[in-house]
Write a structure and sequence with these properties.
- With 173 residues, this protein is an all-alpha fold.
- The protein has one domain.
- It is built from four helices and no strands.
- Helix 1 runs parallel beside helix 3, helix 1 packs across helix 4 and helix 2 runs antiparallel to helix 3.
- The longest helix has 39 residues.
- The chain is elongated, with a radius of gyration of 30 Å.
Length: 173
């Protein structure tokens, strides 16, 4: 698979995985679950990180983009009130929070890189199987279709009054 065909998929995967793993890692480290405002900030961060990686020839920045996305997602989640109670930590993450976000980034980078490498072989297998299952046309439908009933022409009957036969004025040439 070429980098250009994988780029939109990589960008979408990075954006989705950034949001999902940030919420999971944040919750596992005791940060709580996000409310509406935190989710809004998280969506903005995820779209931005996904868009940065959705360009061809950017597979080398996958892990740094995910790490940066986790950092920005942590900040977005920390700025908001979690589950109706005040957030239990400051903007500076704890050691457990850093470990969960870093582990989530590494796992996500490995999964996205593996999916990117397997996309080409899997889709070629699916195309080959679908080609075997799709019946080919038998060729009997080649030619003209003749009708046994003649349809009356409406030219000159219905639209004669609506269509003007006059062309543009002579001065237009």
């Amino acid at each position: 698979m070429t980098d250009s065909s994988a780029a939109p998929l990589r960008g979408g995967a990075v954006g989705i995985v950034t949001a999902a793993l940030a919420v999971a890692a944040h919750g596992m480290a005791g940060g709580g679950w996000p409310d509406g405002a935190a989710l809004t900030l998280l969506v903005v961060v995820s779209i931005g990180v996904g868009a940065m990686t959705a360009v061809p020839r950017r597979s080398t920045v996958l892990l740094p983009a995910l790490m940066g996305g986790q950092l920005l997602a942590h900040i977005a989640l920390s700025l908001s009130d979690m589950s109706g109670m005040l957030h239990s930590h400051s903007l500076l993450p704890s050691t457990a929070m850093i470990a969960f976000h870093a582990a989530a980034s590494v796992v996500a980078a490995l999964l996205i890189a593996a999916a990117e490498r397997l996309y080409g072989p899997i889709t070629s297998i699916v195309r080959a199987v679908l080609a075997l299952l799709t019946p080919l046309p038998d060729g009997s439908a080649v030619g003209r279709v003749s009708m046994s009933v003649a349809l009356p022409s409406i030219h000159g009957i219905v639209l004669d009054w609506a269509i003007s036969r006059r062309g543009p004025p002579i001065s237009a040439y």
